[in-house]
Amino acid sequence: MRFIDPHLHTDMIDDVNLEKLAMAGLEAAVIPSPHMLKGLSSAETLLRLWRRLLDFEVKSAKSMGIEAYVTLSIPFYGLTLDGVEQCLKELPEYLKHERVVGMGEIGLDVGIEDEAKLFRAQLKLA
Fold it and tell me: Are 22 and 66 in contact (CB under 8 A)?
């Protein structure tokens, strides 16, 4: 059997388990940017994560025979308003990358106005 995983956090599993998925028939996967990120305190931290997903995670999956694609997002938790604004400015360029197939993970967890504004801003970019 061959299959595709539309939501696989390769950054949260080790290479042994990723290799097992490949051996079980995983041919392609979409790696989402997490909606919560421990230690997120600056825009640079998030931009570094996006670069890691697009470089290391995609290449690591490819080395095991898995075609990997990425979705990107700005988590509501952790960033200052300035950090959010910086990431919103940079996100359109990242979305042009050939391995980016969408926006995610995004959503409403607590439903306060700042979270809703960020959600709407990301939907506009999508």
Answer: yes
